[in-house]
Amino acid sequence: MRAALALAERGLGGTWPNPSVGCILVTPDGRVAGRGRTGLQGRPHAETEALAMAGAAARGATAYVTLEPCSHHGQTPPCADALVAAGISRVVVAAGDPDPRVNGAGLARLRAAGVDVLAGFMEQAARETLAGFFARVQLGRPLVTLKLATTLDGRIATRTGQSRWITGAEARRRVHALRGQHDAVMVGAGTAAADDPDLTCRLDGYARRPAVRIVADGRLRTPAGSRLVCTAHQAPVWLLYHTDGVPEDVRLYGAPPGELVPSRAQRLTEAGARCIAVPQGDGGIDLAQALQALGTRGLTRVLVEGGARLASALLRADLVDRLVWFHAPGVIGADGLPAVLEMGVEAVSQSKIFSPQGEPLAAGADAVRRFARAC
């Protein structure tokens, strides 16, 4: 099962809207006959890949699967039926599938066919790998990971806005690895305007998959000539905006009288971006509704990289599930730009509490710690 989980982790960031699943087939004499993981964009399924590799050796084998095999007809036949047809004698499943189309039906189908089923083995480890898929199915939104890179006193830039580089090369490599493990990378409009970022994963060993780049841009201020929009044909760019904040352009400068020009949304769409209208919220877009819109479109894991306004709004709304904190051994001072803006916290009991997730990922010049939201 550990090997199956390792396979599943390799697929993170590339299988949405489906979960990344791993499957290992072991013959009665202990030989690994087949292995597979969910393919890019969710097809083929892990069980299908493992069975194809095993061939006739699958008969009588045990299948170790990180998620309950599907039991419904979608773009592919049910994996539970494929395991039965291949002659699998035993199936060990880590986590059940909360999708209403499955939700125990896959295990029931296997048992009805006489397959020995053991469910819940290493479930907690599997649920962590599947956390994004579970969030989309159960909460209607993707798992949100907030990345912060700060000095020891929690600053992300000097008072002049200069921020390159607070952390070092190793931290930047780890950020690219995080991008490669998420379906989308999200920033606020201020960060997009100030940094003109690329937001792609540029790290050897990671597939150049078209991860979605998202800007929370209530007033659609992102220029059509920005690096993001200009590369939208290489990797998708989604702009989340609210119609109340976007004034319609009436006339192009220098255009003949009476000649109308497209709205900002239309111009950005024609340039290759995808403009998604969401309700207006406190000081910008309604982030809860925005994340629901992303979940509806199939995203399961979103990495938020800034800036401070977006980070604060997500934390205030209790929409941050994971926190990855890079901190460098330097101090900028109170006149530097903070990583998080005002939260309105009046008592310590009102603060947002996160629990450490495992040991620190690194020490030395750039320490990295992971946290999960306390339940």
Structural features, described:
26% of the residues lie in helices and 23% in strands. It is α/β, with parallel strands linked by helices and 375 residues long. The chain has a nine-stranded mixed beta sheet with strand order 11-10-9-8-14-6-15-18-17, with helices on both faces. Helix 3 runs parallel beside helix 4 (105-112). The radius of gyration is 23 Å and the shape is elongated. The relative contact order is 0.13.
What's the gist of this structure?
It contains 12 helices and 18 strands.
SSE inventory with pairings:
Elements: H1 2-10, E1 22-26, E2 32-37, H2 46-54, E3 62-67, H3 79-85, E4 90-95, H4 105-112, E5 116-119, H5 123-129, H6 131-139, E6 143-150, E7 155-157, H7 169-180, E8 184-188, H8 189-195, E9 212-216, H9 227-230, E10 237-241, H10 264-270, E11 274-277, E12 280-281, E13 284-285, H11 287-296, E14 301-306, H12 308-316, E15 322-327, E16 337-338, E17 354-356, E18 367-373
Parallel strand pairs: 3-4, 4-5, 6-14, 6-15, 8-9, 8-14, 9-10, 10-11
Antiparallel strand pairs: 1-2, 1-3, 7-16, 12-13, 15-18, 17-18
Helix pairs in contact: 3-4
